[in-house]
Amino acid sequence: MDMKELERVAALIGDPSRVKILWALLDGRAYTATELSIFADLSRPNISMHLSKLTDADILKVSCQGRHRYYSYSRMEVAYAIEAMGALVPAPELKKNVTLRNDPVSYCRSCYDHLAGKVGVAITDQLIKKDYLKSFPDRFEITPAGIIFFERIGIDTRLFNSQKRTIAKPCLDWTERRFHLAGSLGSSLLQKLLKEDLMRRTENSRALQITFKGKKELFEQLGLEFN
Amino acid sequence: MDMKELERVAALIGDPSRVKILWALLDGRAYTATELSIFADLSRPNISMHLSKLTDADILKVSCQGRHRYYSYSRMEVAYAIEAMGALVPAPELKKNVTLRNDPVSYCRSCYDHLAGKVGVAITDQLIKKDYLKSFPDRFEITPAGIIFFERIGIDTRLFNSQKRTIAKPCLDWTERRFHLAGSLGSSLLQKLLKEDLMRRTENSRALQITFKGKKELFEQLGLEFN
DNA sequence: TTCACAGTTCATTCTCTGATGAACTATGAA
DNA sequence: TTCATAGTTCATCAGAGAATGAACTGTGAA
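ok -> structure tokens follow
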């Protein structure tokens, strides 16, 4: 390990303003500089400075569209590192019977490009229980029954069978300490859920809202019940 | 997520000197302030200041033994976060046919309290292949055959059957992008390997040296061959 | 063309905090 | 008791780099 490089990276993600930016981007979406400046409550020149430092270090990438510049993580590893850092934050004092039970973010949320939280874990569990996925220590594999199942809900697994990248890999979930579905299958699944309006993104948050249609569908397809 | 707290944590682990300390501790051992000051090339008052900040934030813990104060991670999550941060460091330029093949650290190393690197992954794979472990998305389970096997090599699995904590859980390995054995079983296994002199720790590094006896034993018990 | 807006660049200021040396406490050995 | 070593505390200093405002570039819309 090049210590100098590690120190550089540490200093980059260790700045209070930059960590705000990086946290905001954890939902995997791309945001413009102005959006981020509002979220992080920083002046535009200031955010611009931080963003350029992060892109120079290949932590963020930019995609220009007209006069807008959309910033997002340059690679999956960034999401892991930020999530892992979040796991270090001491659990908030459980003050006076304030119930945090269905906290929407830990309940159902997106992590980078896939589904996380309690619901993400539950869906993955059900996929295994129904023998649509087979779990290995380093990956998930789609079973023949799984291929048919995903076909039925409109995800063509052949599309990424040809691709070299991992189809389905476990991804540590820091709120649940369990595994949920990442990789191209996890990503397709989230896209599908959003497109079919089974789930909806919320403004400026990684929380996902499960629609009525979504609850019905998840019960019928996977036997998942919601209270 | 309490943003203020996240910023505090980020600033703490984001400092160049502190990240040196945290990286040194990644092998899971406890070091004294003076050892760390030598490793990180910092004055004693300076290291003391950093160490107290890290302990105050419950990132490190101290155990006092006489006039020595041994510092180590206060919890597993710290190891994850530091490893994840390390994964963000850009791969070194592959300059002139310098072969990095058997880089000892990525080859065989300890991660916090268990075995990581190529060898850690290989051992885990063999344990599964030999049906001593069964892999689940969120954990490993010891099979009846496994109980006998671990018994034979001197690890009494009943000892931690009673404990509440996870016996064997997968742990992302950032150099291999695969899973290796963590949890109390992983920890016992590493301890055993060290105690039986099948592997040896190296000074100030997370690299582990496999002894001749170790190669022999790993081949006989698990069919692992070393070139 | 002209304006509005997104975003950046630059020079400057300012603040935070890491580093330092001296003095101090505590433990163990002679 | 005395000395050596481990480690901390304190007051002070210095410097990195974050924040700021003004000026600039570039795109899109009217």
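The mean pLDDT of chain B is 84.
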